Amino acid sequence: MLTAHDLKMSLSGTPVLDQVSLQLAAGQVMVILGPNGTGKTTLLKVLTGELTPDDGAVQFQQQPLKQWSAAARAQRLAVLPQHSTLNFPFTAREVVLLGRSAHSSGQVRDRAIVDSALALVDGSYLAERFYTQLSGGEKQRVQLARVLAQIWEPPSDGLPGDERFLVLDEPTSSFDLSHRQLMLDVIKHFAKQGVGVLMVSHDLNLAAQCADQVMLLSCGHVAACGDCDTVLREPLLRDVFMADIEVVPHPSTGQSLIIY
Amino acid sequence: MRPLTSTQLLNVLALLLPVAVVAGCLVGPTVIPAAALGEGLSHLVGLSSDPLSQSGLIVSGIRLPRVLLSALTGATLACCGAVLQGLFRNPLADPTVIGVAAGASAGASAAIVFGSLFLAAGTVGLPVVGLGAFVGGLLASIVVYRLATSSTGTSVATMLLAGIAISSLAAAISNLLSYLADNDMLRRISLWQMGNLNGADWARVAVGAGLLAMLLPLFCRDSRALNAMLLGESEARHLGIGVEWLKRRQILLCSMGIGVSISIAGLIAFVGLIIPHLVRLLIGPDHRYLLPAAAMAGAILLVLADVVARVVLAPAELPTGILTALLGVPFFVSLLIQQRRHTV
After folding, report:
1. What is the DSSP track for B118-186?
2. B42-99, pLDDT tens digit by residue?
């Protein structure tokens, strides 16, 4: 379980988060939506321990997040940032292998996991290519494979708390349609294995297709949080995004389909 | 694809290194016959106590310590360069470019001046000057790092600018100290600043060997962490790396390596920039192989550069630092041009 209680945060005097609480169980998918600059990325940074909130607390599996050792946490929580800054010529396979840094599962096992992770993101053909020469979408898939490899298996250090969580910051921003579909499958696949997934996205339909819980952020506070049917409603979305938005039932699945 | 596998490169370098060392002992203004090398060596390790021939004396007293000092210095500088580039996540970070070398130089001058003022005469030897160089280099690297790093990461442009500023400041301090120094100190400062590998003796070799023997394992122990650092600081943190301690530890070690190298072998420019870059071109940026390969390649390069420096103007000698700078600057400029092509 990943829980946050009454988070408050301001960056250089400007309040960015105000009384944000959330609860994400293992195996659940939560998508955080909201306009630009509403504190989505800041919330992720607080939830993953990169920023310390001014007030409030983050609990990770019955322990304050801060009390986890770096190595133990890395076996349970993988984070995919929005941008990557790697400019050294590692091959794609070497980048994915870095995801196994916190594990001592041995070279043979690590290599097998790396190959499977690359295959899962449709990146096997990239394995020997230099990361620095890949396109934006290819880089994003390789980085995704890296964080998947990081939490591919349950933690092996024997410490209490063996749930795994995946935190993704706009993972589909440079994906084409087929890879967006692939992202959906990957999220569902890992959630089914008991991995909790927390994702920031601008793709409202991606949320409708995979989220168990949707959190709608507006100016740093929670405008709504709940399942898709309670949050993805026309008046609320129009109000928060200030855009013409219509919600209709999907012709074949009956899920919400958001038109904007 | 890469031109060589890591194992291939490490094997080639391990073969070339002894060849370079032997060549370094034999070639010079006086060409030494190979037999004299054996004679000098067996005398050094105490196998023979016969009086040495002139060639044997040259080998055991002059050439061998000089070649070993070159190899140790080259290896240390190349490793420090590789580690700094990994920490800064930028292939242009180099001791001379980011101000560490100038800081070390100012620190050494300060040690000579204040040491002569406050310590008993004759005690201001290698240890005090080395300590001064280490502290100076450390201060410079901390200031440059602080200036160039913000919450969004380390900015290269700021780092290079900060390096220039800190280098100028350190040069001003050095000049001020030279101005204040008396004749004896001045002589020692300028001798030290010009200092090149011809001051090699067995004491310096021992310091250099001790330094490398301490640094290399500590560098290599962090090679996986340095690999993760290349992804970015927050990515490394999420991979379970204690980033803050890693940075502090490695900056401390690099400052020590560079400061002490400078104090025993003078200012040797650009080895720390060229060697890691060449090795990365051949086998990629994985620090587990990059660090040992850079150590060996740095040793080979500096031994060979020193041979050239000895021979090219014989019987006079070119300071080795001038030669590496002459080779290094065009290389650095071509790197800058390449980077600009990639980023614009």
Report:
1. HS-TT--SHHHHHHHHHHHHHHHHHHHHHHHEETTEE-HHHHHHHHHHHHHHHHHHHHHHHHHS-HHHH
2. 877 777 777 777 788 888 888 899 999 999 999 999 999 999 899 888 887 777 777 8
What's the pTM? Answer: 0.88
CB contact under 8 A, B232 and A78: no
Whether pLDDT at A123 is above 90: yes
Question: What ipTM did this prediction achieve?
Answer: 0.92
Instruction: Say if B1 falls within a structural domain.
Output: no
pLDDT at A99 over 90: yes
- Minimal C-alpha gap between B233 and chain A (Å): 10
List the domain range (segments joined by +) for residue B164: 6-343
Check if A82 contacts B (Cβ < 8 Å): no
User: Given this model, what pLDDT does residue B343 score?
Assistant: 47
Residue B182 maps to a domain: yes
DSSP per position, B293-334: HHHHHHHHHHHHHHHHHHHTTTTS---HHHHHHHHHHHHHHH
CATH code of B78's domain: 1.10.3470.10
Of B230, B239, B285, Cβ closest to residue A150: B239
Select from B228, B280, B284 the Cβ nearest to the Cβ of A101.
B228
